Amino acid sequence: MMSTASEVEEPSATRDPTYYIPDGNTVLLVENTLFKVHRSMLVKDKSAFDSMFSLEAYTEDTTSSSSLIPSTANAEGESDENPIRLQGDKAEEFSALLWSLYSLPSEIASAMSAHANDLQLINLARIAHKYQFRSTENWALNSLTAYHSSTVGSPSVQNLVQITELSILCDCKALLNAAVAKWKRLLGEGRAVAVAINVAERLNLRSLLGISYYQMMLKGREAWDSDPQLNARQRIRLLSGHYNLIKLCEELPSCPPRLVHDHSCIRKGKCKNAFAAFWKMTLTSKEGGLVGQVLKVQSADLLAKVMLAESIIRAYVEGNIPNLDLSESGEMHDKCLQIALRAAEDKVKEVQDNLVDLFSDVV
Asked: What is the structure's pLDDT at 329?
């Protein structure tokens, strides 16, 4: 005979192999795992458990009409049959919290080394935030930030998504910066581009969204159309961005960054014209020479072009290409040339900061 849905029993809970402590005095159920721990550990750091247990004690006190009436047997949290149920949590998260509360100093130290378990720290920070273990949350966030700021490699894409979400949840700008740096490294390798777009849109991360769309645009339309993680609106944004970037690249040689002359310069008009001609020369295709490198750049790759221009200007200012023919542009005052380099650097940053604006929903 088949059992009805109401007759099907939930799978029996299992005791956690590490944190079901025999002399513990509080039993908690998280998902399908039983934890038995010391209540004194859970009330550390003035956590939400402190308030919860205080309210529970007060309620029990006020509802007892007489000291002669025996207390209720098997109260919540005193046995496996009647545990405190934590809804919405994951067993691995609660295990990470207990790890932080019960660990030895050597175990804590390992979490701050190159051998750190970033997933454990992610779980710890998330549940510490929920239950208001403030010092534990800050420690986990700082450990994650230090780990991901110093390690060269990249975490798994799944972990990186969680790190990014966690940095927003906990409002940790340092961790967010470390996560965005990791994303940019992945994007530079052409990996997880669609994932980065979706994460940046969902979390409203402007700088990451711009470079993500840009990297996907460089992959070409065949890549956009075949990627199942992109929707129709996102493909329209890519088309719009491609059109806008082509237009800006065409205008770029004739639109040098604004040059602010040094106060000691008396050749203002000449320096301005010389810089405009120098800028145009770096961005105009010619056979051979440094400017010929632009032929290797995609027609819509605005960022690569302004970075190329900035690098050529820097190399000239630093004397690394002293024989560069500037007969068409003319000489510049030395201090104005330094200002021109800073203007080129600012142009690169301006393009990076405003990439997202080029990818609108309307072509």
From this structure: 57
